[in-house]
Design brief:
By secondary structure, this protein is α/β, with parallel strands linked by helices. It is built from eleven helices and ten strands. The strands form two sheets. A seven-stranded mixed sheet has the order 6-2-1-7-8-10-9, sandwiched between helices. A three-stranded antiparallel sheet has the order 3-5-4. The structure holds S-adenosylmethionine. The site of S-adenosylmethionine has 25 residues, from loops.
């Protein structure tokens, strides 16, 4: 084992502020002063790879760079991509219940689900497993799962469906691990018949229009925690343009629409979920 000490990254407060501002400008994510240590920790590998000693040197390169590519790498490194298989399993079970109910109410219409801020893919792949197990994917009009994230690095991992032993053990029951993953070189790789159920696409919730077409269910879990109130409101506006009338929005534990938007309100049919406001439209509540 190496005994060499890794020198701490030095960064002036103005360098930290500039990097924080870049993250907020590109992704809407704010880093509070008491979490500024994250900047140093998250950017250490990037500094090392570019032979830089300080965040100030990195900022110098960012300012000098003609393209935004370095900025993309910085933003990518700073994003919190914490996720796991079957995270908040009761919520995912309820999503599957809702999908089943909506599908049964209109079996000819293709049900569309959007996992917004899908990180490295565990959320949409968990959902795909549940929908396959419930037989929905065998129907003549199988549901479509679109999964998006701002991070190209997270998306390329999601598309590869390759997870470490640590990642696979977090939340994935052994039965499902054996059924849906192959052991490859110490990692676990999702079978093509699972990964092909999910369409992964890059999408920035704070800058892009909603993906084409309207969705019956949108999951946007643990993405907005570090958005400012104004950005959150804008993102709710965007989600409202992407949801079908009477469609459902699912947020993370501790996230709410209350006081943030008029576009969604709590629905009784599926506990903890929100319904797209459109009094003229058929309501998801009638399906419960
Ligand atoms: C904490 S993870 C949550 C992953 C998953 N939804 C879950 O709950 O397990 C948040 C994800 O949101 C993505 N994200 C952050 N800002 C975003 C933005 N402006 N547009 C799209 N995705 C964003 C991050 O890249 C990250 O993968």
């Amino acid at each position: 084992m190496s005994t060499a000490k890794i020198a701490p990254v030095m960064g002036s407060s103005s360098a930290m502020n500039m990097i924080g501002a870049l993250l907020e400008q590109r992704a809407g994510q704010q880093i509070a002063a008491n979490r500024a240590w994250r900047i140093e920790t998250a950017l250490k590998p990037l500094l090392r790879a570019r032979g830089l000693a300080t965040l100030d040197e990195l900022v110098g390169q960012l300012v000098a760079a003609r393209t935004g590519e370095l900025g993309d790498h910085v933003v990518d490194a700073l994003l919190n991509q914490e996720t796991s298989f079957f995270r908040d399993v009761a919520v995912l079970d309820t999503v599957a219940d809702a999908a089943q109910a909506l599908h049964a109410a209109n079996p000819q219409r293709k049900l569309r689900i959007w996992s917004a801020g899908c990180s490295t893919g565990q959320e949409p792949l968990s959902l795909a497993m549940l929908l396959i197990e419930r037989g929905l994917m065998d129907s003549a009009t199988p549901p479509e799962i679109v999964a998006t994230d701002i991070s190209p690095a997270a998306l390329s991992r999601a598309r590869a469906g390759r997870y470490s032993q640590f990642e696979i053990q977090r939340g994935l029951p052994v039965r499902r691990m054996i059924q849906w993953f192959d052991s490859v070189g110490g990692d676990w790789v999702a079978k093509p018949e699972l990964v092909r159920r999910v369409q992964f696409r890059q999408h920035n919730l704070t800058a892009d229009c909603a993906p084409a077409g309207r969705f019956d269910i949108i999951l946007c879990r643990n993405v907005m925690l570090y958005f400012s109130t104004a950005v959150r409101q804008r993102v709710f506006d965007l989600l409202a343009t992407g949801v079908r009338p009477g469609g459902l929005l699912v947020l993370g534990a501790g996230e709410t629409v209350i006081g943030m938007t008029e576009h969604f309100s709590p629905t009784k049919a599926f506990r903890g979920f929100y319904e797209a406001a459109d009094p003229a439209a058929p309501s998801a509540a009638v399906l419960g």
